[in-house]
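Me: I'm a chemist; would you kindly supply a protein sequence with its structure tokens?

Assistant:
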Amino acid sequence: MTTPFHHEPGAVPPPQCPAHNLDIGPGGLRRLYGPEAENDPAGLYAKLRAEHGTVAPVLLHGDVPAWLVLGHSENLHLTRTPSQFSRDSRRWRALQDGTVAPDHPLAPIFTWQPVCVFADGTQHERQRGAVTDSMARIDTRGVRRHINRFSNRLVNDFCEKGSADLVGQFAEHLPMMVVCAIFGMPEEYDERLVQAARDMIRGTETAVSSNAHVVSVLTRLVERRRAAPEPDFASWLVEHPAKMTDVEVVEHLRLTLIAAYESTANLIANVLRMVLTDPRFRARLSGGHMTVPEAVEQTLWDEPPFTAVFGRWAVGDTELGGQRIKAGDALLVGIAPANTDPAVRPDLRADMGGNRAHLAFSGGPHECPGQDIGRAIADVGVDALLMRLPDLELGVEESELRWVGNIMSRHLVELPVKFAPSPQQKLDADPLSVMSRNARPADAWEISSPARTVPEPRHEAAGAQPAHAPGAPPRPAPAAPAPVPDPVEPAPAAAIPPQRRPAAPARLWQTVTRWWNGH
């Protein structure tokens, strides 16, 4: 173990020492940015684990000290104990003493904003309730149809050429197309928005301006929806009984867009890379021994779209993983290192099929609320691509693939492929139209699996409210093999239920069960 960030003068290695290089900073601490962190994060995690155990002191951009949590159980404790580790970045001692300036490269990530991701307690409950309730109104079946349409539109752009870059021409664009449609702003989808969304969390010199562009786009959307609501995610946030301000709505849209876009773009690229580079993986997939959702889940273990989440801030002096954490210290949820913790995965080659104990979507009260939509985009998108181009092959040697990394994620720069040219597919609708002008209400929400056409009926949990009890909130309707009825007008905003209600545990368990079964 090492002591926290206060080191004796002799702790800094002399210049001639092999350890004195670009990856070692003041006090002998390893940098979580730079060549090693970007090119070999797994190697860096292994070194940190060997040197410090399950919680390691590291340096962020500008050599600002923080803690990286490496252990699986320690990360669960970090995310599940907001009384000890807050999401309020204003607690950060480095901000209070001026060590971190407002124009720091990571400012778009840690600067406090009136959003649930920086809140605890009742404030978090109010804001996250608006997000989760609005997500519950999304017509997930309609989303899947649009994902399939968007995927085929993207494939149409390169299918006749016999070659493509699946990162720049597919993985980077599909999630943004879907998110823009869900938000109700398909006309805002363009290359600049895609690149700004990728750039703003990388800690680059242009991150702040990229963030400003995203905020500007979303501000215009909220102004339009405040004046004229539509059946879309932005309008549902504007109209929610939580009565969020325009600034709150913009920031929650920004949070949802970046989290959904970055994570899903990386997930799609990682799944496709595994299909193209691991013969066993592709053989199991093409032979029917693995479904696309199972391939996605395995990838969430091996190559999570977010490698770490910044951050948590210690409420008071405490201890975690044998390290003394001081009040105001910053901590990072180490998603990738937690997924490879020897305590939970002694054999990294073992098949993790069906096991969702990974931390790819974080955990605790701040666990990603839109993970089912991210899974749907990856499931349907990858499946549609492989159906159209079943003979995909990697267009370069695997050793030539390059990544760009930062403290939060690591993604492929390009994924060149080759295949037999094929004709374009006729699309039955404009892929940039909004998700549905007549969206189904919340009680029609369903997570479906493309592999199963007749969902199994659900059963009410003992003690749950009757489906039509007077004054009771809308409840998910039982799935049935009958054809889907024509869409109906959405329920009025006033009928959106609060986040906590008597039937919530039953619905939560039903949702978890269906996720587990691949629905």
Q: What stands out?
A: The longest strand covers residues 55-60. Confidence is low (pLDDT under 50) at residues 1-20, 431-519. The longest helix spans residues 246-277.
